[in-house]
Amino acid sequence: MKVERLILEPLDNNCYIITEEDEALIVDPSGEEDKIEEYLNKNNLKLKGVLITHYHFDHIGALDYFKNKYKVPVYNYKTIGKIKLNYFKFEVIPTKGHSSDSVSFYFEKDNVMFVGDFIFKESIGRMDLEGGDEEEMAYSLEKIKTYKKETKLYPGHGDETTLEYELLNNPYLC
User: Fold this and answer.
1) In 8-162, which ranges are continuous DSSP H helix?
2) Most buried residue among 65, 81, 119, 150 by CB atoms closer than 10 A?
């Protein structure tokens, strides 16, 4: 599995394009659909689905564009559980706290998790926005500790990290 990060507007969001063979998934198409589509076309990729970690405006700006143009499924808080989609196998895990609809996408075979605004390198997502909940965040943080320490975490903003690094350096997980 290959993961490409595009940093897009409106708030320097991380939009990820995950590829296997000639197929692709988009994680959090924040905006600038032209840049996302340019990457897909340049690499001759067939879009198979869109993954939404949560529905804050800065993560879904181009969602309708891709959903309507490519007629692909959208995976989100309504699709909890294990999913198999052609080459892709992943689990949709509730990770509430930043928002009531926050989920993370775990690709066990590749030991990769897309966490949206749930966890950032050495921090966590804000809980003071609508739908944020400190109790839910605490529960989600305890749940994430049960995954393999080597799991690579891809956040909605900023640099990627690993669960092991966060367990040692993130004050909310130590």
Assistant:
1) 33-42, 57-60, 63-70, 134-144
2) 119
Query: What are the CA-CA distances from residue 149 to residues 52, 82, 138 (Å)?
Result: 24, 21, 18
Strands, E assignment, the chain: 2-8, 13-20, 23-27, 46-51, 74-75, 81-85, 88-94, 103-107, 112-116, 119-120, 123-124, 152-155, 161-162
Using only the alpha carbons of the chain, give its radius of gyration. 15
- Give dist(CA 99, CA 113) in Å, integer: 18
The domains of the chain are located at 2-169
The answer to whether 132 and 98 are in contact (CB under 8 A) is: yes
Predicted confidence at residue 35, as pLDDT, reads 98
Give 115's Cβ-side CA count (13 Å radius).
33
pTM of the model: 0.97
Note the pLDDT tens digit of each residue in 17-61.
Answer: 999 999 999 999 999 999 999 999 999 999 999 999 999 999 999
Architecture of the domain made up of 2-169? 4-Layer Sandwich (3.60)
Backbone angles phi, psi at 38, to 5 degrees: -60, -45
pLDDT in tens, 69-86: 999 999 999 999 999 999
Q: How far apart are CA 91 and CA 108, in angstroms?
A: 8
